[in-house]
Write a structure and sequence with these properties.
The chain is α+β, with helices and mostly antiparallel strands and 104 residues long. It has a single domain, classed as Phosphorylase Kinase, domain 1. The chain has a 5-stranded antiparallel beta sheet with strand order 1-2-3-5-4, covered by helices on one side. A hairpin with a 3-residue loop joins strand 1 and strand 2.
Amino acid sequence: MSAKSDGTLRSAGYQILEQLYSGSRTQVYRAVRECDRLPVVIKLLKREYPTFSELVQFRNQYAIAKNLDIPGIIKPYSLEAYHNGYALVLEDFGGISLRQFTSA
């Protein structure tokens, strides 16, 4: 699984459409799950070798969110192995960032 906007995530069953965010610790992509064409958001840890603490925080983010059934909370679909870390696959409700909204 490779997170590049040229669609190379396809080997893991996802096609990357665009990068939504790139921060110091994470990268977020809009993608489509190929088996059912479901729009998703994929959040990845940025470091090639994340710390144990980063891995635990990422896993906990998934565990907590999957148990919340509250309107307006993004639903996590899965937590998948990605290189030396995880890929968090989330519901894509089609939103845009505040930066994009304010510049429109």
